[in-house]
Amino acid sequence: MKRYEKFADEIAELIRSGVLAPGEKVPSVRHASRTYGVSPSTVFQAYYLLEDRGLIQARPRSGYFVREHARRLLPEPEISPRLSETTDVDVSELVFSVLASLRDPDTVPFGSAFPSPDLFPLQRLARSMAQTVREMPGREVIAEMTTGHPDLRRQIALRYMVSGVMLPLDELVITTGAMEALNLCLQVVTQPGDLVAIEAPAFYATLQVLERLKLKAVEIPVHPRDGIDLGTLESRLGSLPIKACWFMSSLQNPLGASMCEANKEKLYALLQRHQVPLIEDDVYAELYFNQEPPKPVKSHDHDGWVMHCGSFSKSLAPGYRIGWVAGGRYAEQISRLKLMTTISPSVPAQAAIADYLQHGGYDRHLRKLRHALERQQGEMLASAARHFPASTRVTRPSGGYFLWFEFPERVDSLQLLQLALAQGISLAPGPIFSATRRFRNCARLNYGHPWDKRSENAMELLGRIVKSF
Amino acid sequence: MKRYEKFADEIAELIRSGVLAPGEKVPSVRHASRTYGVSPSTVFQAYYLLEDRGLIQARPRSGYFVREHARRLLPEPEISPRLSETTDVDVSELVFSVLASLRDPDTVPFGSAFPSPDLFPLQRLARSMAQTVREMPGREVIAEMTTGHPDLRRQIALRYMVSGVMLPLDELVITTGAMEALNLCLQVVTQPGDLVAIEAPAFYATLQVLERLKLKAVEIPVHPRDGIDLGTLESRLGSLPIKACWFMSSLQNPLGASMCEANKEKLYALLQRHQVPLIEDDVYAELYFNQEPPKPVKSHDHDGWVMHCGSFSKSLAPGYRIGWVAGGRYAEQISRLKLMTTISPSVPAQAAIADYLQHGGYDRHLRKLRHALERQQGEMLASAARHFPASTRVTRPSGGYFLWFEFPERVDSLQLLQLALAQGISLAPGPIFSATRRFRNCARLNYGHPWDKRSENAMELLGRIVKSF
């Protein structure tokens, strides 16, 4: 990380924490340079960056000011209350019916699971695809179906290395998206009837997979900013025969919470002590807003207990269906299970992504993508403050493209969804994120699409429906 | 089917059945035209076709003669003996260790599961890929992940229609290869501990999947030419609570057997009477040698009991990992299970194949491929007759790219594999095709690679090793 990026993160933290208030002037270049002991050009670069991230804006001849929407206008939700110890999962039917209702491409896609494809370098990726597929030797098309395309595996291992995680290449298994990776991991370490610790709220597919595999959930509350409640987890690990944990330690879906480095280390130590494997779902890893990437729990993994699952679907190539798992001590079992179920993900898609990673400018694209998402988050937060009841609570994640709204108690988000759909707006209602259909007054909204008049109108309309309850 | 194609098939049948012996002159054009009541040009075209299929050859100024290797030089194997009623499957470890040993790309690939990639139009397919991926709208890359790419689904349904099977479009689910389709089907209709009827010998992955899902096998003998023994199946269905059948009714792997139309109809009636679903693995469907495609059991399916699984991996695009299932009454359950496990196969790979099917000349390619495989089968059969002990038995399938050899009792094919590998030759030993490691003296050999001096030498060497037992 360069000096100006670090400095920009420091200023961003001051804005987020409210030390620098919305509308307030940020220190002049000369002043900042003297106060913080950095060169004026470093300050300049940092301010340009913060402007691009949507946190400050220049006023002609007056300098830089904190943008209005950078304020935490609505309060954050509380941590979810303690839950029953274990629970059967019974939500799959509901999830399917909700997802089916979200499928209309003409709605305002607040309910979508993906960011806008316009934010991805699909044309550049298409060039990589066209070139690699033309030059691919015939035998390569049928070979290397075992652990994946060698170039892609090297490129992924390289990215781990650059972010400070040394990964033995033979831990890596390429999969048909992260969803396959997560399924394989869970099947390798559990039997029907086993207990699995998951988050509350959790990504709905996690719930569906548990239900399908006849596993019981041990729900661990997630703090909207700090992530998994380690206290509850520790007590559950002590009292219950938990066979695996399935957690998102960074940019958790749907809350956006990220555990701090120290807690990730504690989490690993805890799991190691109890000899319980962690399935770490890290599909939003690249979508952090600060300049420093959050490290996964995997970075503390010295004994192979962590199966770290990643994907290109949220950051580069949705629809290509390429994910992976760094499987720790379970890598070979995962690879064998994959050979028995799908054999291999598409070889041309793997080769195209490998070529793009090497030549396409992935890091440049990611910087642009992160700034766009951060700006759009600001827009949605500001719009929510304008149109939603003041008692609404909302998360403020440091990455990703989801906000989690907690509406007043009387709001029923499943009903809200129906009313919104009738107006051409989708959203993801709270109950699909819970093994037991909790979070009735909550909803996840996607800000991953360029903000425009239509988005603003949709927020206004949503606000009106919420108030009508 | 054109008149000359039908006529060519009739002559081919005379050759296969021995009515026209190897070395014998086939009727002159004038004679054939008069005898069979077809025009001389029809006879000409038929003879050209038979020459291309490797069954007859022209001698200058003498006319056409049946080729030497078209003879059934080695006898066919017998049907496998009756087996125990039900059995646990315990062969997965053996399969993995054998498959690992086959992975060296420098061996003569008699053990391979794929035909040579040189037989596929990979360059033409690459053009389809390059073009579709460049023109693909961004939203298409993330949409349509549910049941598959709409163009591809239409093209597949069209191929069913042309071959006489009317298929409601909503039965079709596109999958990551046929392997995923087969896994999904089996999971939808079984629970751990259930009985599943499979073939003996069976495709080794079938056995691995049963073992993995903790299902018990009911092995049904397969006749090397006629396919599944319906008598045994009927008695087993009467006496055992079989939850599903997993059969290849055409070009069975490894025997190459194809059930006749009447038996397929009987099979369907039997399953319908017992209300037992059929998972029909039909991945070699396009590789028939005669002009008329064999119809699947699916063509008799009026009540939705058949889940018909297909793939492009053996006929067009290995490594693209695109297969499908026409799921009958189970289609929606299959589609949901897929959404929970891999979500979707690669969208660009689907689009590329859809474009190729529409514009690439698939049928022309398939004709060339079939003729190449038929010629290569002739070469391997002739070579086996030259080099293997006379007591060796071998199948003579009417399609595909596998021969099944039954060596003298004293030959141990697992040991044979080790000895052959040491000489740079691979093969697929009999025991990996059996739930209980039978078929010790058998092996499957792949003739899907262009025949050359190296293949001939490898056969000679193999023959010598076999004789050394």
UniProtKB/TrEMBL annotation, chains A, B:
UniProt cross-references to SMART domains, sorted A to Z: HTH_GNTR
GO MF terms held by the record: DNA binding; DNA-binding transcription factor activity; pyridoxal phosphate binding; transaminase activity
Chain ranges of the HTH gntR-type domain: 1-69
Superkingdom of this protein's organism: Bacteria
Signal peptide: none
Keyword annotations: Aminotransferase, DNA-binding, Pyridoxal phosphate, Transcription, Transcription regulation, Transferase
Entry annotated with the keyword Transcription regulation: yes
UniProt keyword DNA-binding present: yes
Similarity section: In the C-terminal section; belongs to the class-I pyridoxal-phosphate-dependent aminotransferase family.
PANTHER family assigned: HTH-TYPE TRANSCRIPTIONAL REGULATORY PROTEIN GABR, TRANSCRIPTIONAL REGULATORY PROTEIN
Name under which the protein is recorded: PLP-dependent aminotransferase family protein
